[in-house]
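Bit of a strange request maybe. I'm writing a small parser for structure token strings and I need a real example to test against, not something I typed by hand. Could someone generate the tokens for this chain?
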Amino acid sequence: MFFKKIDARIKILFLIIILLFVFIIFRVFYVQVVDYKKLSSLAGDLWSRNLPIEANRGLILDRNGVVLADNLTTTSLVLIPNQIEDKDKTTKELARILNVSEDEMAKHVNKVTSIERVHPEGRRLSYEVADEIASLELPGVYLVKEAKRYYPYGNMLSHVLGYVGIDNQGLSGLELQYDDYLTGEQGAIKYFSDAKGTKLDLAEVYVEPQDGMNIQLTIDYKIQEAIEREMDNVVSMFNPDMALAIVIDPNNGEILGMSSRPNFNPNNYQAYSLETLSRNLPIWASYEPGSTFKIMTFSAALEENLIDMENDHFYDSGGVTISGSRIGCWKAGGHGDQTFLQVLENSCNPGFVKLGQMLGKEKLFSYLDKFGFGTKTGIDLNGEGEGIIFPLDKVGELELVTTAFGQGVSVTPIQQVAAVSSVVNGGNLYQPYIVKNILEPATNNIIQTFDKKLVRTTISPETSAKMRYALESVVARGGGRYAFIDGYRVGGKTGTAQKVENGRYLVNNYIMSFMAVVPSNDPEAILYVAIDNPKNTAMLSSYTTAPVARRILLDIIEALGIEKQEGQIEKVYQWNDEVYAEVPNVIGMTVKEATKTLSDFKVEYTGSGEKVTEQSPSAGTRLAKGSTIRLLLE
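Reply from user aminoacidic:
Good idea to test on real output. This should exercise your parser:
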């Protein structure tokens, strides 16, 4: 019985030993075959070191491929403290070259770490400084490639593009909004060292960095360039508190240009105040719109069939009294009898008081909701404002009529251009946007595209057609005449809004604006210009913003390849306007006949003889009267 118990114990012990051996064999197999890569990687991490190689940030391009945000290759200083043989010498030399104290540099040289990036004094080194460090051939001292953001056009589009920090991270604008797309994956040069940090004689491994995605904008460089030029001219001529301009494609919401003053150079953003850096005025600023807002009131009245703009009349005596407050017309004594189209042409406030009363607060404010006022447009830029619209229960008779002509409400520029786009494009309110495509960096193949987004319909196509005609009439025959371009159908509306401070309207302090459509019969671009408190100028937007808008419109016409249009409304000329006339055909006429026919122009002759064989410009061209016509004689 005793021996049987011993025999059983031996068998159990033997079984345990066998199971132990099986487990060990299985574990060895698992480590050598299954878990080999993981353990090998962990072991490698103990004796491998990485010198970082920064990836390039993705480019930002305009719609035609012009690079608006680029990268420069720079050099930065990295130390491997355990490989530094003479720490005192290394400290002194680096401190001298980088112009920092030896105490500060000693902190980097003696730091207990595998790799030490010398920051910030060792970042973005000039070629001269980098060459001087490299020439010393100091052990443990490395120079590594680093990308630096570079904006080739300086201040251009600065608030839209934004800027990046020293570590190439987006801090504002598109650089922040699309940082995840623009940021690449860091690469490295991998080398091997022992536990003390001594470099081993093993081959280095190069891990290539992956550049960030490129971003293509809806911006047109030529249009943007024109806006920037005119904004600089505005600052030079008028010294305003601020100025801004937006160009949008009304058929899809694409932003073709956007700028404001003050602006900044993102290559040197540290030199500017946070207020200047953070305020993208075209989407952030909120103010009373003034008479440009009348476009919305007028279209609402047309949509509701309240007026026949060419046949219904309004008599302007010079002002009206509403709830004890006198609302006057800008013209002393008023405009007298007018059609409602002339009310718009003349920007007559009493006429718009009447339209506001005809609409009533429920109707008028329902249209303002449709047009998107009081809410963000949703443009793909950060920092957008909402504006302020009266709550309906707070709207009395005075609030109703002042809103009708653009006073007492607060809106943003981007809201206005989006709303006016819907007025002239057939009644479709589109969400504005500025990023068109995300592109693969090596090939520029499209990875993701953004398209137009319809928010809602606002008015009917029939009303939209009437508004296009009405706005062209304002430019040809009304207050927008300084934006008239002969041969091109331009629509528009001026605006002059008194500014409010601490609940009171300021004296002689206005925001002057102009909203333009080109061409008015088939819109391709909407332009909005606003100038805050311009100095040394007549207090009328028609003299201030309309000429600025006209110069930008000429560049828009060229950039978009807009051809001349038939059926332009004839301009009503004033004594100081430049008058245009069509050049007649004088080929085949005698000199005497040609001279008489071209009486509106100066004539220069080349050659001799009695008959005209060629003329320049050709017949049918419209020129300002007094321009020179050159004739070639037989």
